[in-house]
Design a protein that fits this description.
The protein is built from nine helices and no strands. By secondary structure, it is mostly helical.
Length: about 230
């Protein structure tokens, strides 16, 4: 994917900027939520930071650059420091939710510009913002897949009955191998497994964001017309 982007410098810049923003916000959100719930592990590991260098995982970054999706360095969490039944779930889901919130906020200028007849493809800043939105949504969706080291595995473990915990932990040990095998089949053997799911989910979340913002803009117009 990165090789293809080299032929389009603006897209490459937007893509790299999007990765930096998406991964940094994603991992910071995990650390912040854990800290908020009483676990100081991430803080002492210097992960409660918006410094991108603190959050990048070598393998995850390579996958982001080469195939378009990946992961950041897992934030250390001490489950024993979390008191609530669903605290681990809150920490796990904070990353994907933060990416979707970033996409939502950044979508506002895209749709606001359209109200003035400005297409994002004709504006450099809006074009880069659009790339950042798409990467944030794709990172959120990819991390919801229930395979370790992705957030989905921890979300599954948090929601699963106690009797399933040992099986899920054993599955987590094989998670990276299964994940690499799926990606190998996807990009070497050209067997579509993950990518169609991610693209379908990305369109789904994009349509929800678009509907929400469009409705909000219509509401603002209605209120403005009353004065």
């Amino acid at each position: 994917m990165l090789i293809q982007l080299f032929s389009e410098p603006i897209s490459l810049i937007g893509f790299l900027l999007a990765i930096i923003i998406a991964v940094t916000i994603h991992e910071f959100a995990h650390a912040w939520m854990a800290y908020r719930l009483g676990d100081l592990t991430a803080k002492y590991a210097d992960r409660l930071s918006l410094n991108p260098a603190k959050h990048f995982d070598i393998a995850g970054t390579l996958f982001l650059l080469l195939v378009g999706f990946g992961w950041g360095k897992p934030v250390p969490v001490n489950p024993n420091a979390l008191k609530g039944r669903y605290d681990e779930l809150k920490v796990s889901i904070a990353g994907p939710v933060s990416n979707l919130l970033v996409a939502l906020v950044l979508a506002f200028p895209i749709y606001a510009a359209e109200e003035f007849g400005i297409n994002y493809q004709a504006n450099l800043v809006l074009f880069i913002i659009k790339i950042i939105i798409e990467i944030n949504i794709m990172l959120a969706v990819f991390n919801l897949i229930p395979l370790y080291p992705l957030d989905g595995s921890r979300i599954l473990r948090s929601l699963a009955p106690v009797s399933w915990q040992e099986k899920i932990i054993n599955l987590e040990k094989s998670g990276p191998i299964i994940l690499f095998a799926i990606i190998f089949m996807e990009y070497v053997l050209h067997i579509n497994i993950i990518f169609p799911i991610i693209m379908y989910a990305e369109r789904f979340f994009s349509s929800i964001i678009a509907s929400f913002i469009t409705s909000l803009i219509d509401l603002v117009k209605l209120i403005a017309s009353m004065f």
